[in-house]
Specification:
The protein is of the alpha/beta class and 440 residues long. It folds into two domains: 155 residues, no CATH class; 234 residues, TIM Barrel. Strands 8-7-6-14-13 form a five-stranded parallel beta sheet. A four-stranded mixed beta sheet has the order 9-10-12-11. Strands 2-1-3 form a three-stranded parallel beta sheet. Helix 1 links the parallel strand 1 and strand 2. The two termini are 29 Å apart.
Length: 440
């Protein structure tokens, strides 16, 4: 056990210390605001206060963790071991920056509460993040800082043992549109055919007809292929189904469609599944819509649904997470960027959402992802070989700290057709390597 002393043990200090020690380093942490108890304790201990006593392990705190309001903090940078970090500490501290404050700032997404300049889909933009500005977006810095603390503590307390964390791999599939042409309402099929003719897209017109006549497989029907890739590792896979009402950004077929129901049930037999709350759930009345869509999936599967990922990764603090909590969701997989790979919250370990406006730790477990197919192809426009290298680089960073690597792909992006030609091999090699490392 680690003992942490502070003049005032605030909810923020408790939260981040438990994250760093209990969840990442896998050691219990106790707290005290009694300096005599701290000085007399024989436990491995950290003085996180504004007064250093002697030669103890000491980190002078940044004011952030003692604040009780959402204010813009003063952020001073500092270099350490060739990296530029932030929230400067003091010269007599074990580290020249405050890893507790810096980690809290990142994992709570403090900066996103303060930012109002969003993209056209009302999303926080990666380039505005402090991690982008400090060129740290592709580093799991919170995990790295936890390891730094562990190393420094071991120097002072040689008998202290930190369990080794094992790399974990989760491959996730979002089903935004279960089929490209099949099983859709007559009005949608007729409209699509007429649209193809009007635009002179006779190739699409021909393909659609062949699929409808049963002479060619639907290009989005990749489910048997996915089963072959995941065989033997089904426990490391999760599917998220979009069941929202049809709209401009939500174009899956009706949740009442018997073919979609059959697909959901068949998938549920092999894999863990969750709800993919629609784009519309981020608008007004979103709270009711998330609950309704979750209930639809529960009615189809006959199981309670506890996992979610927001469609288009629409994530606004604290609104989105409060809504999924009220809908009965206990684990969310939305934490990551559309436009950039890497570590949006600076961490690759699942952790609990801290509501900054309520100053309260919640029971919602956040599972960050690092890589998405559309990021690599649409946003960065990487050729397949470069996309694979980007994935390997990020995955290695996660492995280095014993974290959890999570990717997002879609049923339509693994078909090796059109813009996705060559990406099927990227998907296969990513999973092959991830499953190998996770099973070692």
């Amino acid at each position: 056990m680690i003992l942490l002393y502070s003049e005032e043990v605030t909810p923020r200090i408790e939260y981040i210390a438990q994250l760093l020690f209990t969840q990442i380093l896998q050691l219990e942490v106790a707290f005290t605001s009694n300096s005599s108890d701290f000085k007399n304790s024989t436990l491995p201990k950290i003085n996180y206060s504004f007064e250093k006593f002697s030669d103890e392990f000491y980190i002078k705190p940044h004011r952030l963790l003692h604040c009780k309001a959402l204010i813009t903090p003063t952020i001073n940078s500092v270099w350490y071991e060739g990296e530029k970090y932030f929230f400067e500490s003091s010269k007599d501290s074990a580290l020249p920056f405050d890893p507790f404050a810096a980690s809290f700032y990142l994992v709570t997404r403090y900066e996103e509460y303060m930012e109002t300049n969003h993209d056209k889909l009302d999303r926080y933009q990666a380039h505005r993040s402090i991690l982008t500005k400090y060129t740290l977006l592709k580093k799991p810095v919170v995990n790295i800082w936890a390891k730094l603390i562990a190393e420094k503590l071991k120097e002072q307390f040689p008998k202290l043992v930190f369990p080794e964390r094992k790399f974990e791999f989760i491959s996730t599939i979002d089903i935004d549109n279960a089929w490209a042409f099949q099983h859709k309402a007559l009005w949608r099929t007729t409209g699509a055919l007429l649209k193809s003719i009007a635009k002179g897209n006779f190739m699409e017109f021909s393909t659609r007809l062949k699929v409808l006549w049963g002479t060619e497989k639907d290009p989005y029907d990749t489910y048997e292929y996915l089963d072959t890739i995941f065989k033997g590792n089904e426990n490391k896979v999760k599917f998220f189904f979009l069941l929202g009402n049809y709209a401009h950004f939500d174009k899956n077929i009706s949740h009442k469609n018997k073919h979609l129901k059959m697909l959901v049930r068949k998938t549920n037999e092999k894999y863990d599944i969750g709800i993919h709350p629609s784009f519309a759930t981020g608008n007004k009345k979103g709270k009711k819509k998330i609950k309704a869509e979750k209930q639809r999936l529960e009615e189809i599967t006959g199981n309670e649904i506890l996992k979610s990922r927001q469609h288009f990764l629409r994530l606004n603090f604290p609104k989105t997470y409060r809504r999924v909590i009220k809908a009965g969701i206990t684990t969310d997989y939305t934490m990551g960027y559309s436009a950039q790979p890497g570590f949006r919250a600076g961490i690759c370990t699942p952790y609990y959402f801290y509501d900054l406006k309520k100053e309260k730790t919640t029971n919602l477990l956040i599972v960050p992802f690092q890589i998405m197919d559309g990021t690599l192809n649409h946003y960065l426009q990487l050729p397949p070989e470069d996309a694979l290298q980007e994935i390997k680089n990020i995955m290695q960073e996660v492995k280095n700290v014993g974290g959890t690597f999570v990717s997002i792909w879609h049923n339509e992006t693994v078909n090796n057709k059109g813009l996705w030609e060559g990406y099927q091999q990227v998907f296969e090699k990513m999973n092959q390597l991830g499953f190998k490392w996770a099973n070692e």
